[in-house]
Amino acid sequence: MCQSLQAIVVGAGIGGLAFAILARKQGLRVTVLEKTEELTPVGAGIQIPPNASRIWAQCGILEKLKKFSVVSEATQLRRWKDGELLCTRTVGEALDERWPWLVIHRADYQRILVQEAEDLGVIIRLGSNVQAIDFDLPSLSLASGEVVTGDVIVGADGLWSSLRNAILGRDSPPQETGDLAYRGTFSLPALQGLEDSRVDELCRQNVVTMWIGPESHAVFYPVRCGKEFNLVLTRPDNLPPNVRTEQGDLSEMMALFQHWDPVLTKILSAFSSVLKWKMMHHEELATWTRGNAALLGDACHPSLPYQAQGAAMAVEDGAALATLLGLYQQALQQNSPEANQMTIPEILENYEALQKARTTIMHSGSISNQHMYHLDDSGEQEERDRILKATEWKERPLGETEAFIWIDVRYQRAILRRDTIADARSQWNKMVSELDVTNG
User: Fold this and answer.
1) Which of 150, 269, 348, 428 might form a disulfide with 289, Cβ 3.0–4.6 angstroms?
2) Whole-structure pTM value
3) Per residue in 265-284, pLDDT tens?
């Protein structure tokens, strides 16, 4: 029996850890190289929609995540100026109780995944700064001078990926979207201290609340079992070109949103400080793979955050890639005929074929939502509001589409009900059947 495949993962973010966990569960040896000396999560709240929670359920982690999450019951769109409810979209368990829509603090998310990975035997090496990749061996050279070799290399090094540059053979930095985000969290006592019954009522609801308005929107939801709350506000970018993040000016933020729903402005008054984050994305890549190396997550498809699917897509990537490699390893160990006719580069190309079209659709969906969220007050905005308020949540006949994907039942089901692991197994079966046809 051949030895288990060795996977080297660059980056210990959500996507890299997702791959590491699922690959290890299938018997691959996995080492994660993380350049930081300490895992310090960036950001605050994060959403885990059903297509990601399904994956975590399938590998036995969902209940661990739920202990530190809130199960969202719905996402609500409200008018920016007065908080008028425009539309409520039930999510997660309303679609399928097995796959909830969770909202969680990023620090909790990463901590749980790191612990799970280490419990499974994944080696996580901090302070491992990758300087170069040799696609022929394949191997990675670290800043320390050490060379790390493996059978497959997974670039999960995020938005500013160096592995992306290496695979493409050129520098390929992300581009500015034209928006930035203010991010922050509040404790429940801090919000209760505002002594506002409307804020108290909002805090009692396990929902994601979105205020949509001219050039901006705001997202508010509970994390840490309702003990804390996450708030993200987007606005046109006014950071200098080379500045990714900086401390925000509270007075500037308050002035920008001063005429918004009084419930939102009341919550804003609880900010003691705020960070500004430049929002970036990247055009579709020509390829995600080269030899025995592949990219996943933000390294190959950083997207606009207007569908709450960025991290979920990284989890899908990790699950798909790990499943295909696991099936390949199983075939090798069983000395199956198809194993001798396949190569790791072919496995990686099939992973890309499985995921790339989907992530492109998701990126287009985010752009569509951005337009819908940020309409100026106008006739188009009034028509949008009328359509949203009249939504019946029925799947339209084939050939007919909704005005907005946010209320398109067929689109949402295709996104949220996706079984990535089953799709990866189907992709494997397709590969095997094509070999049979070729040999026949």
Assistant:
1) 348
2) 0.95
3) 999 999 888 889 999 989 89
